[in-house]
User: What shape does this take?
Amino acid sequence: MLKISEIAKKTGLSTHTLRFYEKQGLINASQRSEAGYRLYGEADVRKAEFIRTARNIGFSLDDIAVLLSIRLDKASHTCQEVTDIARGKLDEVYEKITELTAMKATLEILLASCCGGPEDATHCSIMEALDASEAKQQSSSGNTATNEV
Amino acid sequence: MLKISEIAKKTGLSTHTLRFYEKQGLINASQRSEAGYRLYGEADVRKAEFIRTARNIGFSLDDIAVLLSIRLDKASHTCQEVTDIARGKLDEVYEKITELTAMKATLEILLASCCGGPEDATHCSIMEALDASEAKQQSSSGNTATNEV
DNA sequence: TAAAACATTAGAGTTGAGTCTAAGGTCAAG
DNA sequence: CTTGACCTTAGACTCAACTCTAATGTTTTA
Ligand SMILES: [Zn+2]
Ligand SMILES: [Zn+2]
Ligand SMILES: [Zn+2]
Ligand SMILES: [Zn+2]
Assistant: This one.
C-alpha cells in the first residue's frame, strides 16, 4: 500500500489535489493506517490515473465523477452515456474555439492597422478603433479599415 | 447628465458592472448630485463605450486600465505601448486555441472510436482509452494512437 | 532521542469578472 | 403620505479547480 505522497509521485497529482479530489468524492484511499494515514492500493492507482487522463483531456471534475460512476459498473451503463459526456465537452470546445478565433481575427486586424512604432499615439488606429463605439462582437467578419500613418 | 441606470442602458453595461468598474478604477462619474447620485456626461458615455468595446474584444480589465491611461494622454504614449498590449493578448489567444485544438482532436478521435449506442459500456473504447494511462497532455504534440471497438 | 520529513484536519485564499444582498436614503406620482 | 422605483454603501457570494495555512500528530533517520 502506498502513502499519499507515493501515489502522488506515481500519478503526477499532488497530495493537495488528491485530498481535494477525495473531498469532491472522486477518489478515496481504500485503507487507513493505525494513525489515520491514507493507504492506496493498485486499483486506487489506476483510478487516479484514469482521473488524471480525463482531466488532461479537459473533462471537468463533474464530468469525471460521472465517468467514474460508469467505470465502476460498465455493465449497467451505455456507450451513449459516455459519448453524451464527450460530445458535450466537444461542443463546449467548439464554442470556445469560435470565440477565440473571432478575438484572434479582431486583434490581427487591429495589429495590422497600427504602425507599432515609437511615435506618439495621437494617430493610433487601434485607439481609434476602440473609440469607434462600433460594438464589434464575436462572430461575423469585421472591416476596421482604418489605415494608419 | 445621466443617472447610472441611464448610462447603463445606453452602454449595455449593468449598473452593478459600472459601479464595479469604478471600484477597479476604470471609470468615474464626473459629478455627483446633491444626494450623492452618480451623474455621467457625454465624455463618460464615450469612455464607457470604449471600455465595453475593449472588453468585447477580449482585453482584461487590467489591459483596459492601461489602454485608458494611454487614451487619457495619447501624446505621451506610443503606438508600441498599444501594440504591446494587443500582441500580448493575441499570444494568449493563440495559446488557448492551441490547447483547445488539442482537446478537440482528442475528443473527436474518442468519439469516432465509440459506437455511442444503447449497448452496455463493457466494451466501450472511450472508457478503455481513459483507462489506458497513456498520459496525453495538452501542450506538446500528442500521438493519440487509439484502439478501436 | 531528537530532528526532519511526512501525515492529518478544517478552513481560508487564489484568480477574474462580475453578481447580489442588506440596510438604508431619495424622488416622482397618485 | 405612501408606494414604488430608483439610488447609495460595504461587503459577501459565485464559478472551477485548486493551493495553501495552521495546528497538531506520526514515522523515519542520524
Ligand atoms: Zn502609429
Ligand atoms: Zn497605433
Ligand atoms: Zn459501444
Ligand atoms: Zn463506447
Q: What stands out?
A: The two ends of chain B are 68 Å apart (CA to CA). Residues 14, 16-17, 20, 24, 33-37, 55, 60-62 of chain B lie near DNA strand C (CB under 10 Å from a C1'). The beta strands of chain B are 31-32, 38-39. DSSP finds six helices and two strands in chain B.
